[in-house]
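Hi R.,

Here's the chain you asked about this morning:
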Amino acid sequence: MFRQSLALLALALCPVISLAADLSVMTENGFSTVQFNGRKVWSGKTTGKVASKSVSVNGKEYAAVFEGSKLLWESEKGAAGKVR
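And here is the predicted structure, written out as tokens:
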């Protein structure tokens, strides 16, 4: 019974795990590049600290990238407000 419960739990969690956003930021010599789920989605000159944030809300991923408090990119309109 315990093994069946663990197997059902694992199956239930698999979709959640696979929905995780793949968000990365690379900065070199004042030029930053943002990749989201394997695609280059933004690039440009940056001068400050660049940070990425993402959150899952009811199974939907929201992501945003900031330079200090300035928004550089968001996965969709309003995503920056959801990840702050």
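One quick note: Residues 10 and 31 are 41 Å apart (CA to CA).

Cheers,
M.
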